[in-house]
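Continued from yesterday's entry.
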Amino acid sequence: MSNEPIPLGKALASFDALWSPRIVTRVNDYDVRIAKVEGEHIWHVHDDTDEFFLVLDGELHISLREPDGERTVLLPQGAVFTVPRGTEHKPYAPSGAAILMFEPAGTLTVGDRHDEVPDHVDSTAGHTLNT
């Protein structure tokens, strides 16, 4: 990891892949990841960790399946939201967005339980940022 400041705009400009996070830095045992997203991700669950989202650009929707039913939260640019562990959710960005996520290193982008992973979804634990 870099010991210099990392301009997020430059980092985001260094890749084009959608739903394919880049690890910007680490904080203790957590990855700080950025991603470009557009269209739908998949329904998935992280059994043992919460998932933090910060919208850097655009607008992100997150559908949630909760005990009281299904709902969708809308995150405009600058908004943050944490999906609680064990909550089935599906992020999507109809017009595209750039997001920052904070989660334990090694966390898969498709969670521990998920629908079938389509070809356009990169289901890794994040890629090293190459700027």
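--- second protein ---
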Amino acid sequence: MSKRLFSFFVSVIACFAMSAQTVATDSIYSPNIKTVIFGKKGVEMSLPIIQLGSNDKLMLRFDEVGDNSNYYRYRIQHCTHDWQISDISVSDYMDGFEESSIDNQQLSFTTIEHYTNYWETIPNDMSSFAASGNYLLIVYLQSDPDSIVFTRRFRVYEPLTIVEATVGQPQGSVGLQENQNLSVKVNPLEGNYFINPDTYMFVYAEQNGRNDLTRLLPLESMSGNTLNYRWKKENVFPGGNEFRFFDFSNMQIPMNNVWKIDYFGGENIVFLKPDENRSRNVYIYEMGLNGQYKIAAVNTQNPNTEADYAWVNFSLPQEFPLLDGSVHIVGDFTNWKLDDDTRMEWNENMKAYTARFFLKQGYYSYLLLFLPSGEKVGETSRLEGDHFQTMNDYYIYVYQRLPGDLYDRLVGFGQTQAN
């Protein structure tokens, strides 16, 4: 079988594993896979994005809970600007091998929950990237290529543009206290110029890590060689609120926003302090992780293998259930998804929404989003409140596909924070 044909088959398998979706997503398909961390090597809590042709590396790390250890492989697939699988051959986007084994693993040490910690650096000596753009990492069982256990998005960019972004209050009198307006300028590097940017360029803006709040920005104007993306409705984002957080790095003493720690049936049980509806509260500044999390455990030398797992219980007291939608816990540890796995259940006896997640010790941050029935974008206004002062992170991705190009190139990356 040719390399290109094999690549096609693996891509098809990945699509089936993603519940027949055509859009590449961050998803976990095995219940034993936990704590998938994927970012720039050497930078904690970083985005999985590196520069083409540089020495940048990505670090993948994940756990398999239980007493059994498996061997895993990964494959890399190029994607379009809107996360469809690209119709190009492997040789167009990789130098070397696009798939390899994950060779590094270590058993947990002195933990109640047994697990194996795996890690791998990407790219490595066997391969490098030949193209910029969006990518999907597909991890599967070495013994069964059809058994995909999880997927992760990442990006490789070419620094061909300068991206500047600022956050302020929107124009007009409506939503001044609740919303944030993102303004973006894109300039080509010296000696370059833009061709029909309305047709050949795609500029996306993302608030924090929220996939549901990622916008394709329309071009507002072009001044000389400067592309301006501003003052359109797509540039106005709800301010939301600072992220909620908790810390169970210490399993002996309840710390920030932890109410009680227990041990029952051979498992650690953590109860968080009840959340509250913050929609009518005044804004309070708090430095936070904006949805990210960090693995940490007191009195350990290597939290990757010495941090323990626990069932973490969330609750949101509410006199009556919200009948026009659902409540979701959203953050990096829930893959920023609004689905059944992140949905809180209404408990009539407790008069509260409840949920629990099997998490590794550390610091975590999250939001409670309300998802109206039939919608795809979560609302912060119902449970968190919206404030223009919120310290949101914004990430801007600039793609270009000129006539004759085989794929969507990621030609610019920028970020800013509301302040």
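Confidence is low (pLDDT under 50) at residues 1-21. The first strand starts at residue 27 and ends at 28. Will compare against the first tomorrow.
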